[in-house]
Amino acid sequence: MNLEKVIFGFFIVLAATLNFGFFVGDLDNPMHHDVYELFAAIVVNLIATVLKFGDRTHIGAIHLSTSLVADLQLIAAALVWGYGVHVASVGMSPETIAKVVSLSGGALFANVVSVVILIAETIMQKR
Amino acid sequence: MNPEAYESTLFLALRRMRAPLIMLILIYAVSILGLTLVPSLDAKGNPSQMSFLHAFYFISYTATTIGFGEIPNAFSEAQRLWVTFCIYLSVIGWAYFIGALLALLQDQNFRNAVRLQRFGQAVRNMREPFYLVCGYGETGQLICRTLDQLGMRAVVIEIDHGRVSQLDLHGHSADIPALAADARQPEILKLAGLTHRCCRGIIALTNDDGANLAIAIAARLLAPKVPALCRAETVETAANMASFGTRHIINPFDKFGRYLALALHAPAAYHLLEWLTAVPGTIVEPHRDPPRGHWVLCGYGRFGKVMVSALEQENIPVTIIDHAPPASESQRRWVRGDGSRTLALLEAGIQQAVGIVACTHRDVNNLSIVVTARELNPGLFVVLRQNLQANQSLFDAFESDFTVVPSQIVARECLAILTTPLLEPFLWQIKQRGESWASTLLEQLTERFGWEAPTVWSVCIDAVEAPALMDWLHLNHTPAPLGDLLRNPHDRAEELECRALYLARTNDSTVMLPHRHTPVQTGDQWLLVGCSAARRDLALTLSNENTLEYVLQGREIPGGWVWEQLAWLHAKLAGPER
């Protein structure tokens, strides 16, 4: 067992699960989507991205790019949330939450790709 | 370290930044999360909670020590407690991150990796022809300086860091990318542009024959079309290089042996050769011709062997002074001892000798030998080997007849091959034509141009070097005599300060010393000698139509479309009256 692999796998899967947890629920119901879950998803995604730095293999490059996509989508979601609540000052409206959730849905897809790559990589291992 | 390893260093560097980055992210996350959870007060003093936007904003300006104060509302006591904790946490986080970053930037491996990347980038961006010089020692410096003066680019690989940093101090007019690396590695050679389409040649000048051989092999296999010039100091290396088709192998000792043999039997031809191949900016001093008679040679090493065979080829008896006897089968006269001792010199018959060759590998020994020998026999002809450029002033102070500086011989030879490929067949012709021919030519040339090193260059009549003349020949169908072309573009009554030495036609015919009526044809290759201003003027004449018309016909053509139209109108109006 390789401790580095454990941590790596842990963060990738955690990023995907947190993302999924935020994403499930009615698209336009603010009650179903918790802001802390989004925050946790962003932080774990960022950590997962940094963990993927410095891998020079082809798979490593794809890993990094999926993570960057997820970061981009989640940060965009957070920005939309902040803009909707504070700048447009209409409070949390169904339109805003729908935008946020659909953006996080895109991030979820990238995270799922990441997990699939992780599984594929593991299966390719002969041992 | 090869480029592969350097590249992985970059990835390792990224890996080393993982821990500080993750630490920073965690510190921010904990601080922001805490700030949103800790009870706060709204504008009216009622309990509420900070939103993520405000928390992120607050932590951003606090962690970076900007500190705008308590925004948006005055903080509750609980918030102040948490923020105090956050401030210390973030200071630690940033200190760790910046410390790690600076340590990484100071890391020698990382800096080497960055240097290698920049060097590779600079070479890849080369858009002009360049020469790849391996070894920036005395010879390499001389070659780079001359190439720079001639307006040609160079790329340098040198194993010694100190010499690479010297390169910046030498003040070349063009930028010379340089790398401190081992040129024996093919990857390094590739990175330095061996396979680059603008690479015009590779010059291997390291002081290690093995390295030069490795470079020659790499050049032959990786870039067979790129000519390789390689320095070889032993016969074995030279033979090895020749066996796989290295085009130019330069053995400085062998070269000098041939010079001396030429100087012995054809002094004028030797002087002519020396004058034509002199490094630009130097003055060739005519010295007395080596006399025939008994010679003494001190130090029977690599150079000594070459010198003995050169002298014996001219049927000149030589006595060798060395600690070890020469090869047993030879019948050479040999005196055991040290050449700087009077006794050994006397035993070798220095008082009856006409010349002495001091060619040990120590400069001080060589000087000591010739000083002692001159005291015993003031009329001696002295050939002195100088090993290090650093001792130049000592050798200048002692007036020898010949000073052999291997680095200069190699540099001269390289430059002659690189810049004027036509010079080689011409020099060969000089050796064939005989002594009186050479002495007449030498007299004519030095009378006209002086003993200063001349500019020797070749011109090819093609679309690149002579576009204007190509057009003119195509339109006019009349030959352009050489004498008419070699005129001053500012005043055609004046002749340019240059002379044609050799002409190679496309049909393989060659002309020695073509006279002024020789017609210039498409595809001709001309070898010219003269001053550098003449070279520039001729280049202008060959490439500018108006100048060419003026030089050949004496007519001033107006430049620009409007003036051309006016001139045409003027000619039409003036036409009928004539």
Shape of chain B: flat
Strand content of chain A: under 5%
Mean pLDDT score of chain B: 84
Helix-strand pattern of chain A: HHHH
Q: Nearest-angstrom radius of gyration of chain A?
A: 16 Å
N-to-C span of chain B: 81 Å
- From the alpha-carbon coordinates, what is the Rg of chain B to the nearest angstrom? 35 Å
By oligomeric state, this entry counts as heterodimer
What best-fitting shape of chain A do the alpha-carbon axes yield?
elongated
At CATH level 2, the architecture of the largest domain in chain B is 3-Layer(aba) Sandwich
Q: Helix fraction of chain A?
A: over 70%
Structural class of chain A: mainly alpha
Derived structural class of chain B? alpha/beta
User: Can you tell me the CATH topology of the largest domain in chain B?
Assistant: Rossmann fold
Low-confidence stretches of chain A: none
Spans where pLDDT lies below 50 across 5 or more residues of chain B: none
Largest sheet of chain A: none
Task: Summarize the structure in words.
The complex is a heterodimer of chains A (127) and B (578). Chain A has 127 residues and is mainly alpha-helical. Chain A has one domain. Chain A is built from 4 helices and no strands. In chain A, helix 1 runs antiparallel to helix 2 (35-51) and helix 1 (3-23) runs antiparallel to helix 4 (94-124). Chain A is elongated and about 55 Å long. Chain B has 578 residues and is an alpha/beta fold. Chain B has 4 domains: 3-106, Helix Hairpins; 125-250, Rossmann fold (3-Layer(aba) Sandwich); 276-425, 3-Layer(aba) Sandwich (Rossmann fold), CATH 3.40.50; 454-562, 2-Layer Sandwich (Alpha-Beta Plaits), CATH 3.30.70. Helix content of chain B is 51%, strand content 15%. In chain B, the strands form 5 sheets. Chain B has a 6-stranded parallel β-sheet, sandwiched between helices. A 6-stranded parallel β-sheet of chain B has the order 11-10-9-12-13-14, sandwiched between helices. The longest helix of chain B is centred in the first third of the chain and has 30 residues, at 77-106. Chain B is flat and about 115 Å long. The termini of chain B are far apart. The A-B interface holds A 35-36, 39, 43, 46-47, 50-51, 53-56, 78, 81-82, 85-86 and B 7-8, 11-18, 21-22, 25-26, 28-29, 32-33, 36, 51-54.
